[in-house]
Design goal:
heterodimer; A: mainly alpha; B: about 140 residues; mainly alpha; 6 helices; about 0% strand
Chain lengths: ~100, ~140
């Protein structure tokens, strides 16, 4: 059905109709338009806010994953360091001079 | 980026707590008396040591108070030499030490005796008395 619509003819028809509208109707239409624009702006802001925290659970899960990975890496690093510390202390306090193990 | 700002800050705080808090590098004058005693052979060069090396020795110093006096003395006598080694040399020493610990005790004692005899000979040649082996 839409293919039979002549857009220019429709626009002219609407403009003619608009010219025939009384002032109170025009004011009501203007007010409705302004309210619609205000609602649209508010809706956009709300949508942005919602988008920011659209998946809070996923965000926290990702953070948790990162923190666990970081903690895991750090724990592994400290474990290695700690093991080395034990060995190093044993070497330093051993009867054998250190250079025996180095050369 | 903005939505995750709080989470990122949280993760960074956690990371800092883990990595930096345990042992921070400090100048010699800011070390505790216990740390200064443990690391006394390094007093002169301490402030020139890189942060990472300082943290490493502070970790060693943490274990020092639990050592018996003879071991403390032994550690002091070897610490300066140890501090001059590169990380690769230290890793090599660790590997050799671990391997040596797997050698049967009788063989180990023989090797220790040989090394001790060599030290005595060297000390006699240089005129400096050699330190006796520390009790285990």
């Amino acid at each position: 059905m839409n293919e039979y619509l002549d857009i220019d003819a429709t626009r002219q028809l609407l403009n003619r109709s608009l010219g025939q509208l009384d002032q109170s109707t025009l004011a009501a239409l203007r007010q409705a338009r302004e309210q619609a624009l205000l609602r649209h702006a508010a809706s956009e802001r709300a949508q942005w806010k919602f988008g920011a925290t659209r998946h809070p659970a996923a965000a926290w899960f990702a953070t948790l994953l990162i923190v666990v990975s970081v903690f895991g890496g750090v724990a592994y690093y400290w474990q290695q360091t700690h093991d080395n510390g034990d060995t190093d202390l044993a070497i330093l306090t051993d009867d054998m001079p250190v250079d025996v193990y180095v050369n | 980026m903005r939505p995750f700002r709080r989470q990122i800050l949280f993760a960074l705080a956690a990371l800092f707590t883990c990595v930096a808090a345990p042992a921070l590098a400090k100048p010699w004058t800011e070390l505790t008396p216990a740390q200064q005693e443990a690391l006394s052979p390094l007093a002169k060069e301490w402030d020139t040591l890189p942060d990472r090396k300082q943290r490493y020795f502070l970790d060693l110093a943490r274990r020092y108070p639990a050592l018996p006096p003879a071991k403390k003395q032994r550690m002091h006598s070897q610490l300066e030499y140890w501090s001059k080694l590169t990380p690769e040399q230290r890793e090599q020493a660790r590997q050799k030490y671990r391997a040596f610990k797997k050698v049967p005790p009788a063989t180990r004692e023989q090797v220790q005796q040989m090394v001790h005899d060599q030290e005595v000979e060297k000390a006699a040649a240089s005129g400096v008395p050699s330190a006796p082996p520390s009790p285990k």
